[in-house]
Every structure is written in structure tokens, then in C-alpha cells.
Amino acid sequence: MDRVRLIFDSSSSRGRHGQRMLLLGGGGGGGSSPVFGGARSALAAAEGANKRRPFFTSPEELLEEEYYYDEQQPDKKRRLSPEQVRLLERSFEAENKLEPERKSELARTLGLQPRQVAVWFQNRRARWKTKQLEHDFDRLKSSYGSLLSDHDSLLKENDRLRSQVISLTEKLQSRTAASAGAAGIAGTKSDVQAAASVADPATLAVQTKAEDRLSAGSGGSAVVDGEAAKQLVDSSEVSYFPEGYHCMGPVDGGRVHSEEEDVSDEGCNYYSDGMFAAEHHHQDEVDAQLDWWVWS
DNA sequence: TTGTGTTTTACGACCTCC
DNA sequence: GGAGGTCGTAAAACACAA
């Protein structure tokens, strides 16, 4: 146990506040700081008359001020008593800013100078802010961790879906080539679609699109060569996704990036024209059906 | 007992608000 | 311009390991 505490504990004749007379033995734990060491203490010693009221002063003792200052060494920094701190803490919890009336009231109650109360609140706010910053940092760190993990799993899912699309596209192409061969040299558009009918709507839409391009570019020939279709599908320069697929992602804070903004495919979610076309086509059929029921 | 790191008290500089 | 705030820092008080 250090010297200050021994002195503090031995000052029973004056109660807790008795220690104020005895804190003269030199410095803190290091023992390296002389009582009047440091610029500020030296200055205070030089000033001499600077009789700032010390801590641990009860209201009764305030009445003995002259007696006290006659014996007191100048300007020693002292800690507030646990009781004083407890009251200040309670006051701080109620309101962390200090109106002048409350400051005076607290100072009177605690036997401190209003300036001490103000300083205590300033320091307390600073400590609170530091704690708050630490707390915020921890919260952000854990939030970042969970976002990172979400991001990773989304990337994995994206990869999985991409390879699924590629695999299905290849399957469809080989099946189309086989059925075209079986049907002879004059396969029709409907043949191709029939062959593709087992595929999902998105794949179908891709295939149809490829055919349309082929038709437009070759004077109306409907013959679909498997390799040609593959080349058509692979013709996109910026993405290995088929033409007609649009990057609709990634979603960032509720905002979807446009293609212009995001030049890479990284993190994109792809949707085909066909998916929307098929959906719209289906809706058209439903509408037509409804019209028929209404008007007939 | 001592060295060292942390916490608490106090202050000056600067800023904002009324 | 004054009062009261934050910020940065000095120094005392304190805790603790060696």
C-alpha cells in the first residue's frame, strides 16, 4: 500500500478529510515527483497567496477556512471523496450539462468550489465521450463483420448461379443441335422452340433471341447451327453472360447500380430480357382471357 | 520499494452561442 | 464580449508487477 493511503487511513481523528493535512510526503506511486515539482506547482508555490480550496472539504470545514489555509501547503491536487463523486455521478446521470444554478447548488452541497464542479463535469463528459466512442467502434466493427460475411455468402451464391446458367445453356445448345440434325436440314423456329421446351423460360428466351438475330442477319434462314448459336450467345464483349441479360446489382444501401456505373460483372445479379418478356407475354394472355370473358 | 502505466483533477487555448 | 463548451495536456493520485 502506498504512502498516501496509509496516511489517509491513519487520519481517523479528523475523519476522511483529515488526510488533507498529511498529503505532503511526496508524490504518487512513482515517488519521483516532488511535492512542488512541475511547473504548475512551482508557480503556485511562487504565488503563495493562491489559496485554492482543496478537495475533501466538508461544509463545516469551509467555516474553518482561515485556520485551514494557515496550515495548508499551497495547491495540492486532491481527489474527491467517494461520497462527493457519488453525488456528482448521480447529478451527471440526470443531466450531463450544468446550469449555473445547479452548479452552485452542487458546489454548496459538496463543499467544493463551483469551478471544481464545472471541471468535474467537463472531465466527466470527456470520459463519457471516450466510452461512447469505444462503444460505437465495437458496434461498427461487429456490424462490419456480419456485412462481410453476408457479402461472402452472396458472392458464393452468385458464382453458383452463374455456373448453373452456363451449364444449362450448354445443355440446351447440344440438345438443339441434336434435334436440328434429326429433323433434317430444314428445321423451323417452332422445332427449335419445341426442342428447348424443357428448358426454363430464361434459357428459352435466350435461345429465341439468338434465333431472331440469326434470322435477321441471314436473309430469313431459320437453320440454327449449334456452334453459331453458341457464338451468338457468347458474343457479348463485356460479359460472359448472354446478350439480353442485364446486370441489376449489386444492391448498395437500397440502391441498384446501373450498368454504366459498374463496368465489371462483379457482384451483379443478371436478369434476361426473356424473363421479363415471358412474364409480360403470360400477362397478355391472362388479359386476353379476361377480355374474352367480359365481352362474350 | 520502485518503476511504470492508468486515472483523475485542473488549466489554457480556442470555439460557439447569445 | 462574456459564459460555457470541447480539446489537449500537465501533474498528482493511484494501481500493480517485479
Number of helices: 11
Give me the secondary-structure category: mainly alpha
Task: Name the average pLDDT.
Answer: 55
Radius of gyration: 42 Å
Give the low-pLDDT segments: 1-74, 185-296
Strand order, largest beta sheet: 1-4
Could you give the distance between the termini? 102 Å
Give the proportion of residues in helices: 55-70%
How many strands, what sense, and barrel or not for the largest sheet? Answer: 2 strands, antiparallel
- Described by the principal axes of the CA atoms, the overall outline is rod-shaped
Order of helices and strands: HHHHHHHHHHEEEEH
Q: Report the portion of residues in β strands.
A: under 5%
Features:
single chain, 296 residues, mainly alpha, two-stranded antiparallel sheet, 4 strands, 3% strand, rod-shaped, DNA-binding
Question: What does it look like?
Answer:
There is one protein chain. The chain is mainly alpha-helical. It contains eleven helices and four strands. A two-stranded antiparallel ribbon has the order 1-4. The chain has a two-stranded antiparallel sheet with strand order 2-3. Helix 6 packs across helix 7 and helix 7 runs antiparallel to helix 10. The longest helix is centred in the middle third of the chain and has 69 residues, at 114-182. The structure holds a DNA duplex (18 and 18 nucleotides).
Write a concise synopsis of the structure shown.
The chain is mostly helical.
